[in-house]
Design brief:
By secondary structure, the chain is of the alpha+beta class. It has four helices and five strands; from the N terminus they run βααββααββ. Strands 1, 2, 3, 4 and 5 form a five-stranded antiparallel sheet that branches. β2 and β3 form a beta hairpin. The longest helix has 10 residues. It is globular, with a radius of gyration of 14 Å.
Length: 109
């Protein structure tokens, strides 16, 4: 299992819309997340800075393949069309990233 964290900005005018979307996340999208070996997935919001922090545990063996499968899913792509305009990616993110992945520097069980 690999713990993973990511961060992105949230458009100040879209905070309530983003919360509404995630309060009623689509079952097909949630199923795809699980099929891609992601467990214990949470998104946290820090206001008033409007920063989103995502955390999950990856239980698979080929993260890139699982992310390709997720990106190819039509329902997930449709979900991203609603969520994407709410988000403000960091200019410093790596090529190919939307959410900026974070380095784990500490963990304690």
């Amino acid at each position: 299992m690999q713990r993973m964290g990511m961060v992105i900005g949230l458009n100040a005018g879209k905070v309530e819309e983003y919360k509404r979307l995630h309060a009623a996340a689509w079952p097909e999208v949630l199923d795809m997340i699980s099929r891609c070996n992601i467990r214990n997935y949470s998104i946290f919001l820090k206001e008033p800075e409007n920063l989103l922090f995502g955390y999950w545990e990856y239980h698979g063996t080929d993260f890139e393949a699982d992310m390709e499968m997720m990106a190819a899913d039509p329902k997930t792509r449709e979900w991203w069309e609603y969520c994407g305009p709410c988000q403000e990616p960091f200019k410093t993110r790596k090529d190919g990233e939307w959410w900026a992945m974070m380095e784990e520097v500490f963990h304690h069980d």
